[in-house]
Each structure stands twice: as C-alpha cells, then as structure tokens.
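It is worth pausing here to work through a concrete case rather than discussing structure prediction in the abstract. The textbook approach is simple: state the sequence, then state the predicted structure, then interpret. We follow exactly that order.
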Amino acid sequence: MKKHVTIALILIMFLTTLVGCQNQLVFKKDDITTIALSHNGSFYTEVNGTAQETFLKGVNMGATIPGSFPGALAIDKEAYLKWFEQIYDMNANTIRIYTTMRPVFYEALYEFNQEKDVPLYILQGVWVNEEDIANLNDAYASDNLIITNFITDAKDLVDIFHGNKTLAERPGHASGTYSYDVSPYILGWILGIEWAPDFVVGTNDANPDKTSYKGDYLYTRNASPFEVCLAEVGDALLAYEAKTYQMTRPISYTNWLTTDLLTHPNEPDEREDMVSVNTEHIKTTNNAFAGMFASYHIYPYYPEFMNFEPEYQNWVDPDTGDKNPYKAYLTDLISHHDMPVLVAEVGIPSSRGMTHENPQGFNQGGHSEIRQGELLVDLFETIAETDAMGALIFSWQDEWFKRTWNTMDFDLSWRRPFWSNYETNEQAFGLLAMDPDNDHQTDGDMSEWASITPLIRANTTSIYIDTDERYLHILIEDQQINWQNDTIYIPMDTIPNQGNDSWQHESVSLPFYADFVIKINGENNSRIVVDNYYDANDYLYRDILNMITSNSPTRTINSGIFNPINHVLSAELALPMTNETIPFSSYEAGQLTYGNSNPEASAYNSLADYYFGTNFVEIRIPWLLLNVMDPSTKQIIADFSINHDQTFVPIDATGFTFSFIYDDISLTPATYDWDIWHTVSYRERLKPAYDMLKSSFDHMD
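Step two, the predicted structure:
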C-alpha cells in the first residue's frame, strides 16, 4: 500500500492543527476533530504523528454466544478482552460491529487500548428494525418511523462513544450506563443493513417527490428517494456529533451485491438486480471533511451472477494470467466509485452443510476448517491486490442461532441457539469455533468412552451411544470385523408406526421397522440413508413444492426402500443473457466422510464423520440428518401424512432404538434416550484459518 500523503491531504494538514488525544493525533478543522480521513479514493489514519494510508484488515463480530439469541447480548467483558487480544495478535486493526453493544463492550475496548501504541479500531453499525421494514415497506411510512428510530439509535451511539449515555432497558436491545470515552477508537460508521430490494423499491415508489436533500454535512445529487433517506440519517448524526462533541468521523452505508450500483444481465433472479442503492449520489459538504467510503458485503458464490456472468467468469487477471471472477467483480465495482470501497464482509463457512456452489470451488459450505483458511487467505489477498481500502472477514465467532434456507424448514426457529446444526452453513463462518464441550472425536481414542456404559453387549460386539449439542455419537467395538473391508449396518428406529423391516437394495433384513440405516463400508463408501416414507427433503421439494421429479415410488410404510439423504443447492435457473438453463441441483448430505476429527491430529479433518481404531469404529451423525428438529427438547419431525396446516411439525422423541448387523447376524435391539437441556456447554477454539490469516495480515500494511 502507498505510504505517502497526497498533496491534497498535506494541504488539509497544513491548514488544520493536530491535537493529542490519548497517545494518538487527530485531524482538526474549524474546531472539529477526526481520527480518520476518507480522501481522494483512499483511507487515512494517523500513525506515529503522520497521516498514513491504511488498509483495513479485520473481522466482523456478532453479538451472541451459544445458548442465546443476539438480542440477549450475552457476551461478558472477560470474553471481549480475550477476543480483542486474539484479534490484535492476528495482526488485525479493525473490528466491525452491527449494532449498539452493552456497556461492557465499550469498557473492554477502552481498557484494552490503554496499553496499545496503535489501537484496535471499531467500525460501528446502526441496525434497522427488520420487522418495521417488513411491515411498512417504506422508510417514510408511519410518520417517518423507520428514519426517526434510525436517527435516534445513531445519536445514542454518538453519546455512547463519548461516555455520556444511559439507555433504559428494552427487550432485545442494549441498556445500561456508558461512561467510557472510546471516541478515539471509533474509526467510522457503517449504517444500516443489507437492504431488501422490495424495501428500496417500496420507498422509491411511495415517495416520488423525495428527489433531493441538502443538509449542513451531506447533500444529494441525482438521488433516489431511498438514497435521500440515507442522506437524511447520515446528516443528522454527523451534525449531532459535531455540534455536541466537536468531533466527526468517516461515514458509510451497508450495501451488498443485490443492490449495488452495477447491472448484471445474466442474473436469473430479477429481485437480485431490480434496484440499486448508489451512495455516490450522496455528497459531503466541507463540514463533513472526514469523508465517505462505500461498504459492500461481497461473497464469491451469491448472488448467482457471481457464478454465471460471462464478463466476470472469463476475466483474466493481468497480474497472474489466471481467470479470477471475484477480482473481476471487485475491480469493476471499484471503478464505478469515486470514494474508497471497503469489502465489509467476505467469508467462507467451515460447515458440513452447503448452500451454494461456485465454479472456482468457493462454495458456501462443505469445507473443512483447513480448506476454509486456504480459501479465506486467497480471497483476502485477492482483495488486497485491488484498490479496495480493506477487507473484514465474516465472522469472528461461530453463531449457533443462525439459519440457512435449505435447512430452516427442518428445525425449530425458537430453539436454534441451544444446539449446533452443522448442516447449516451460516453457523460456521467463524474463525473462533464454538464446539460442544465434550471429548468425543472420531480419532481412534477409546479413552473418550471410558465413562459410557454399552447400550448393547452381545458376543464379541459392544455398542456405545452418546450425544451432545451437535452430534449423536456411536462407538462399535468388535474384534472379529475387518473394518477396512467388511460392511456393517446400524438400523435406527426413531419414530413409531412407520419404517422398513428390510433394505431391498442391500438385500438386508432388519430386526425392527427402521427409519434410518447407517452403512459403514471401508473408507470411501459409507452413508446414512432414510426410509422413503420419512424423506423430508424429497417430500418438501417433490410433493409440496413440485420442484423436482423423483424416481422414488409413492410414499408407503414398509416399502423396503431407503433413499440417500439429499439437501438442495439450487432451484432450476434460467440465465437471461446466455439463454442457458441450469437444472435443479442438490447434493448427498448423508454421505459420510472418513477421517480424524481431532483438531490436534496431524491429519485433522473437521468434516470427518467416522474413523477406524483398533477393533472399533467411531461414528458421529449430525442431528438434522436424523430428522431431529431440536435435540435439546427431543423434538423430531412428525409423520408427514398427519400434517394438515404445516409441512413439518414436531413431536416428542421417546428414544432411538439401535441394532447392529454384520454377516447376516443382528444384535438384539436396545433403546437409547437422552436428557432435555436448556443451557449449553461449549468451548472456544481457534480454527486453522486464524493462523493462516494472521500470516497473511502480517504482510499487508
């Protein structure tokens, strides 16, 4: 990155004075100070008494931990202090937060930075109530309710920065007394959320007269009504901080590819390219001398134009000679902006489940933690090769409360924080893993099972079962089996009055009516399958949504047919520019991966589902693959045929019955049950991506 100060910036510094504030210098103009400047397409901070172009590198931080929704704001001061140290040690300089945090966050930030010559900076977000957006669909509706609340929350944050606010208790919001002045560490604003295109269009259509705004700090030129709304909010908060505290800072607005300022002719979903939010239409007056920058959430796999736009897919990087669609898009985006562009979110989840595929392998999920790190470094270094002002990784910590579109129909929304759904990629974007607090790994270590009593013990075979917030764990011990070559079956009865007493395709008789069967056959041909009658994915997309045709016969009890467990990746896509049709796609989520899941192992594979030890096999099955909607309250998907008002409804599980089949010998079945829980037990662990990015960050000033 460039180290010099531009001529224009030298003039600003010459015409202004520099004042000290807690071991750092801030720019001052007309008695208003700032700690950063967005100027002439670049972003500057003060370093060792001089203005230096600064590449922002860091993370987005959520507001939650396992066992709570974000509105609970359950993270304590000790956690923040530890996380700040870890992030700082990663060679990061910036954390982006999305909303007002509890006082302990800002207190921890203040204490942490007292001992740092170069502080850890914060980019502060202001959230907008999504229920209001959905209900009103117009920023100006109901006497400007959304805008008024937007401005109120922003002004409250200004007072919070300066240690001068007490917020009354409100459900789902931060409250308490804020008494620490952290204003020297708030690098700038990123206002708002990923704007729903319907909301933008609704605001524009309902307010055709809102075509311009002129304030003391911001004004508009050729703006849409929605862009005028954003200018009003930004102007109000800049004016408030300048007049109340004689301070200002750079301002930005959250944006994403769905509402970017470009057009995407090969986007198959018209909603993903129906309207733009162009912050170049918002201008700064001389009073807002800290400037503006653009903020975008840019992922390589979504929207679909990122996978199918010929202009990007065929673009050749002049630096490497290789095709690089992600860099092509970012280069295009930056070229249409006069202000600096921040990649405010970019991420790859280390989840077992997957939601989108990408031609270059940057899929949304289905990556081991090691592969996650490799891909994140690739994306970060690609961003650094452009004229972007920085990149913030999404996210710092895993978030158990999150949902994903291709699994959300199969779980209970109000219980998501109480278990870890490894099939939901949104829960595993973190650099900091939030693992269930247990010792079970598929690693060949029998000592992990020392305290567990066998569920079944017969002849030479013992079967052990255990559970945690993420998996159902199975250990089968037998000295007679050649685990590398022999085939074993583990039938499971999870719901009464349905299932199969045989698996016709495998010519296997089952000792009870089984709903699932786990087949272990060496290292490359193992899977869990589901009774055709109880196949939730097939029922939803074939019978309810009519999006696929299936070779499966009509659903009947005891058909003898077991299906692969599939999860959907995409509906059929019609590409408007190239006139291609991309067929409906899915992947086999029930296919099991062999490997060692112990993070300390040299051959560590976080996606491993089973592993052979000496005379035994360890298996772990994610709860969702067993049609469990919430293991914490023992809720499973009910018989589809009895549902009339909803597609999937829960019923109580009364325990799962297991057996074991090997060489036509079946063990006497036994039933395993587990206890309900309402609090979770978890442990934190830095994923491999942390050290990989630490090294990459270290080389990027």
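Step three, interpretation. The radius of gyration is 28 Å. The chain has a mean pLDDT of 93.
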